[in-house]
Amino acid sequence: TPSFQSICCVGAGYVGGPTAAVIAFQNPQIRVTVVDKDPSRIRKWMSKHPPIHEPGLRDVLRVARDGTRATTVSTDQGPDSIVSLPERLPNLFFSTDVEKCISEADLIFLSVNTPTKLSGIGAGAATDLFAVELATQTIAEAARPGAVIVEKSTVPCRTAKRIRDILDLYRPGVSFEILSNPEFLAEGTAIKDLLNPDRILIGSSQTSEGLAAAQALKNVYATWVDPAKILTVNIWSSELTKLAANAMLAQRISSINSISAVCERTGANVDEVARCIGLDSRLGSKFLKAGLGFGGSCFKKDILSLIYLSRSLGLDEVGDYWQQVITMNEFQRSRFVSRVVCDLNGTLVGKKVAILGYAFKKNTSDTRESPAIDVVKQLLADRPAEVAIFDPRCNPSDIKEELQRLFAATGLQLLKPDGPIEVYNNPYDACNNASATLILTEWDQFRYPALRRTESVFETARSERAQAKSLSPHGGLSPHGGLVRTMSELDIATLRHHMLSTKTLVSDYESEGADPLDRY
Ligand code: NAD
Q1: What is the reported pLDDT for 77?
Q2: CB neighbours (10 Å) of residue 298?
Q3: Burial, 401: exposed, middle or buried (Cβ in 10 Å; 0-12, 13-18, 19+)?
Q4: Gap from CA of 132 to ligand 1 centroid (Å)
Q5: In ligand 1, which atom is closest to the CA atom of 15?
Q6: CATH number, position 183
Q7: Is residue 238 in some structural domain?
Q8: Is 148 left (phi over 0), alpha (psi -120 to 50) or beta?
Q9: For residue 20, how far is the Cα from the chain centroid?
């Protein structure tokens, strides 16, 4: 079994960066280099401000990328508990010199983007393997003979065969082992998931060379993961497992959302239904929260990839089955926007609508395929005077840039002063004078203790006879003391004839010291 000394991770994104950082953190003896063709991304990874926000990421970087000095610490176990921590040299590096770093590695992770194809055959469904192809060509040309190549990106089943064909074409006669090692981390909890994974999946060919390469990769993970959690399977099972896992996670969200629509028309409470369903040990309680539906860069594209794969295998019924998960997700969003417009007397003209939360979920700054984008798009059709956006982690200028890019084809004047959209760096200005406040990301800042504070604000505002509503599919603010958790509860919790009073909110927080709604 080979043992790896030098790892190169191609792609410094949401997966490549954190995964390489944790592998380096847990394997001080291995040199880990992350490469990307995007110099600004690499620059950020080398700076104090990594390009992505993940809880715990900075701590891991501080040790693996920056190294530590020898220190002596005393624990609280008494005078004999003085511990000396040795000096640790940096073993995590970032670079734009893709070829050079690949040529120095004996294990190469392919962690490049695999989006949905936008044009040509399979547009809107098939996986675009352009980045995988290009990176594989570079690997073929630059890698050491015998280097092991690992698919970390999520790819359609049988992509390893394509990778092998490219390697054979560009580097005939040289053998490279290919492994599949899909990543199951969730954004927002990436470091926690990487440090304590449910399982590590390694797919390989079943030859002795393939099995030896799988064992060597297993050894890298076994420095911190229980070997019983490291599964070795055939390579096609590994590739398909990742698509199937994401499709089934998204399916649960669409399933509970479909039930939430029934709840709203019957008086059943979807939270109660979800809790009672989840207690069945065959089903489990996770991923059963009704809301705006799934967003993010993965679920939709991976289901689309599974649908395309199924249909291209002549399995149209399988494709149709998974298509319904996406249809339900879209239905939930448009249902929510219709609800907002309906509650505002069927028109948004002359009204300000505030949006709290723009990232696709809490604890990340990632906005790819965020439900908020769809909601903004649908709101704009009703010509509001202002759509006011605030997110605790997304940079206002990044949000503006993204919206302008996404709406460029419409030719609409988007941003204030000529257009309706304004992005704020605090929630108070965003909500001030809004006719409705939509909480679209379940950031904790928008729940407790903001809840208690705003209740008194609503009381004050009521006497001012102003108009506002707070609508949230996740967890909004209710004047009745409960969180607005689901759409089915909106009926009772929708705030009519109240206004968020900016002044009261701010002074309330100032007297407490810290402001939980503040950017940090
Ligand atoms: P990303 O877009 O954030 O990062 C990909 C990076 O690869 C980019 O920085 C890009 O510049 C770089 N890249 C592309 N081609 C390159 C090349 N030839 N040479 C050097 N660099 C190159 O994508 P991501 O979110 O990190 O996802 C990567 C893969 O992991 C995808 O297949 C995705 O489906 C999968 N995945 C993502 C998540 C997630 O939560 N984001 C979770 C599990 C799996």
Answers
A1: 65
A2: 23
A3: exposed
A4: 10
A5: 26
A6: 3.40.50.720
A7: no
A8: beta
A9: 17
- Domain end, chosen from 225, 244, 267, is at 225
CA-nearest residue for atom 1, ligand 1, is 13
Domain count, the chain: 2
Using an 8 Å Cβ cutoff, are 505 and 474 in contact?
Answer: no
Domain boundary (196, 225, 254) is at: 225
CA angle 247, 366, 102 (to 5 degrees): 85
- 491: in domain: yes
For ligand 1, atom 32, which residue shows the shortest CA distance? 153
- From 401, 386, 312, select the one nearest 349 (Cα to Cα): 386
Among protein residues, the one with the nearest Cα to ligand 1's atom 2 is 113
CA of 298 to the centre of ligand 1 (A): 11
Note whether residue 370 is domain-resident.
yes
Instruction: Please give the DSSP secondary-structure letter assigned to residue 488.
Output: G
Q: What angle do CA 145, 150, 155 make, to 5 degrees?
A: 130
339 and 221 both lie in a single domain: no
Q: What does the DSSP 8-state code read for residue 174?
A: -
Instruction: Report the distance separating Cα 470 and Cα 437, nearest Å.
Output: 5
Over residues 32-46, mean pLDDT:
98
Q: Which residues contact 64 (CB under 8 A, 6 or more apart)?
A: 21, 24, 25, 28, 32, 90, 91, 92
Ligand 1 nearest-atom number relative to CA 366: 41
Q: Would you call 101 a catalytic residue per the annotation?
A: no
Give the range of the structural domain holding residue 210, as residue numbers without chain letter. 6-71+84-225
pLDDT band at 223 (very low <50, low <70, confident <90, very high): very high
In this prediction, residue 452 carries a pLDDT of 42
The structure tokens listed for 193 are 């998931």
Q: Which of 117, 181, 297 to mutate to test the pocket of ligand 1 (most atoms within 8 A of CB)?
A: 297
Same domain, 375 and 491: yes
Angle at 87 (CA atoms; ends 68, 109), nearest 5 degrees: 65
Question: Mutate which of 10, 15, 22, 96 to test ligand 1's pocket (most atoms within 8 Å of Cβ)?
Answer: 15
| Pocket mutation for ligand 1, best pick of 52, 57, 113 (most atoms within 8 Å of C-beta) | 113
Tens digits of residue pLDDT in 406-418: 999 888 899 999 9
When the pLDDT of each residue in the chain is averaged and rounded to a whole number, the result is: 86
Token pair for residue 182?
A: 């899909």
Q: What is the pLDDT of residues 187-202, one digit of tens each?
A: 999 999 999 999 999 9
Mean pLDDT, residues 446-471: 43
Q: Average of pLDDT values for 438-453?
A: 68
| Domain annotation covers residue 477 | yes
Proportion of the chain above pLDDT 90, given as a percent: 73
**297 Cα nearest atom in ligand 1:** 41
The pLDDT value given to residue 78: 66
